[in-house]
Structure prediction request, 380 residues.
Amino acid sequence: MTDWLDWPFFEPRHRQLEARLEQWCADNIGDGHADDVDAACRALVEDLGRAGFLKLCVADGDNAPDVRSLAIARSTLARASGLADFAYAMQGLGSGAISLFGSDGQKEEWLPKVAAGEAIAAYALTEPETGSDAANIAMRAERDGDRWVLTGEKSYISNGTIADVLTVFARTGSAEDGARGVSAFIVRGDDPGLSVAERIEVIAPHPLARLKFERVRADPLGGTGNGFKVAMQTLNLFRVTVGAAALGFARRALDEALAFATTRKLGNGLLADNPMTWDRLAGMKMAVDTSELLIARAAWQQDMGEGDNRRAAAMAKLHATDEAQKVIDAAVQMHGGLGVTKGAKVEELYREIRALRIYEGASEVQRMIIARDLLKEHRS
Prediction:
């Protein structure tokens, strides 16, 4: 199902990338579940780095990452393994602010290591009391002589248990300053003041944690008071790729549904002979193709740098994640009891997809972005 790469949004290099990733997945991704998620994630990052795929996650000089390449990578990896997609994506998101706003020295120190799989990156924005309301974070950043130190907690931090470098957002102004009082910082994962306060177990296991910061040394990133801008632009860079990961999950669910329907006996025939199955498969394919169109358009628009692409990115993420949930649910329903049996691929996909409608901007936030932009356009 690579027909979308033949559309004019993509170039030959994108088709070559997809082919290389498909082969890598075939050679490196098994069907088993990792007993040690941290170790498995580290191994995936190292393997992806050695294969050269993580170079796509970081800036190349003054050029931001190519969003179409990121979307292709995430869709391909997610179709094979949710953990592989996670390991890949977090290298981009965790270092994205350095790619976009880092000084030459910061880029030289961290981006080659991230690209080689030698340093695992994390993005620490969410707190116990703030999720989508990022302008009201409470973590404090204070000057201590000629350095900054951070005090507070971050929660639901992906790669929190294994990160070597973290982009952290903290308050340098008063609470009344809102977004203007937030700044971004780079933190080393081995700082003695940084600790894992709680490992958070979720339905699709990955390295997730609540982190405690006790006067942790921090390197300013992007200028004091610009943290909210840094956070939002970083999220916007990778928002389309969340939809692409959902697309990969949906494609795999459709694959599984087709394979099951064409082999499962039903009466004197097969499940695939049933008109109800036809209706379900048609709806699944419609959802996959419309997601492909929205993702391709948004990624192309972002790479071309033509105007504000927030609405297109929000639409791609919202539609692809919501529709993937429906596609996977349909695949589970088609499988019957097997669909909710632990170890079945569709059961795994059912757990994997749910978080994508929450992280990097929940579906409700995407609807706000779309509506506000639409009203702004109408009133202008």
In short: The CA atoms of residues 149 and 275 lie 64 Å apart. The beta strands are 121-124, 140-144, 147-158, 165-171, 182-188, 194-199, 208-221, 265-266, 269-270.
